[in-house]
Amino acid sequence: MKLFLSVLLCAALPSMALAAERPKGLAAAEAVAKAALGANCDMNGMEEVPMAGPDAEGFGHAVYRFSYKPDYDPDGDAVEAELYQLFCGSGAYNIRNAFVLKTSDDETPQLIAFAMPDLDYGYTDDERNRLKAKPKVRGFRATALLVNAAFDEKTRTISSHTAWRGIGDAWDAGQWTFRNGDFTLIRFEVDPTYGDQDPSAPESYVVYEAGK
Fold first, then answer.
1. What pLDDT, on the 0 to 100 scale, is given for residue 55?
2. pLDDT digits (tens, 9 = 90+) for 84-117
3. For the segment 131-144, what is each residue's pLDDT rounded down to a tens digit?
4. pLDDT over threshold 70, residue 181
5. Distance between CA 200 and CA 196 in Å, rounded?
6. Closest Cα to residue 60, out of 104, 22, 103, 33?
7. Contact indicator for 111, 143 with CB cutoff of 8 Å
8. What's the per-residue H, E or C state across the chain?
9. What pLDDT, on a 0 to 100 scale, did the predictor assign at position 6?
10. Other CB atoms within 10 Å distance of the CB of residue 141
11. How many CB atoms within 10 Å of residue 46?
């Protein structure tokens, strides 16, 4: 785990070296996230979180700007958007992120809630390396925190990857794409097994994929 932390910290250092001036809307975005999430977005107690740059990951904020035309008003003016990716805090091997969206047609920045599958599965053994059956989606919930998140500006897609423990043998990963002013879940994958995996079982399970 110490090695993993060292790699993570080293990866974050170049991001912090790219630190830029804080954009005007950042304080309002931070206030929205802190008010909604409380201790879950304490930003590791930092008085001022550095800007990490538009392509960086790690212990810093990032802001992305783009414009779009909603499907319901294709002949109207383009909407200007600012997407704030906020560093909310970190544990031993995961970084928590919140996202706040500010658009030109809304005076108030909005904390984004992400749809997340609620899974039903069970283990055959105490080591939790075998499943009784493949995971099933029993519903959906919403979360305002993603883990180890990244934003792809070309596809306007946010992705997350959560390590369930330090060595990363069990994990889940999601993708949410921007449509008409909000982010829609398009894919969610999970590997809930630990240790030596059953060779006859899939390495992971895609439990939700849009259009399938």
1. 57
2. 999 999 988 899 999 999 999 998 999 999 999 9
3. 999 999 999 999 99
4. yes
5. 12
6. 22
7. no
8. CHHHHHHHHHHHHHHHHCCCCCCCCHHHHHHHHHHHHHHHHCHHHCCCCCECCCCCCCCCEEEEEEEECCCCCCCCCCEEEEEEEEEEEECCCCEEEEEEEEECCCCCCEECCEEEEEEECCECCCCCCCECCCCEEEEEEEECCEECCEEECCCCEEEEEEECCCCCCCEEEEEEEEECCEEEEEEEEEECCCCCCCCCCCCCEEEEECCC
9. 38
10. 10
11. 12
Apex 201 CA angle, 200 and 204, nearest 5 = 150
The number of distinct structural domains making up the chain is: 1
**Range(s) of the domain holding residue 44:** 2-209
DSSP bridge partners of 157: 152, 177
Inter-CA distances, 170 with 167, 178, 206, Å: 8, 28, 14
Distance, first Cα to last Cα, the chain? 37
Which tokens in the block code for residue 110?
């909005």
Segment 59-65 long-range contacts (CB within 8 Å, at least 24 positions apart):
59/12, 59/15, 59/16, 59/87, 59/90, 59/95, 60/12, 60/15, 60/16, 60/19, 60/87, 61/22, 61/26, 61/30, 61/85, 61/86, 61/87, 62/151, 63/23, 63/25, 63/26, 64/151, 64/153
Type of residue numbered 125: D
49 pLDDT band (50/70/90 cuts)? very high
Structural contact between residues 38 and 50, judged by C-beta atoms closer than 8 angstroms? no
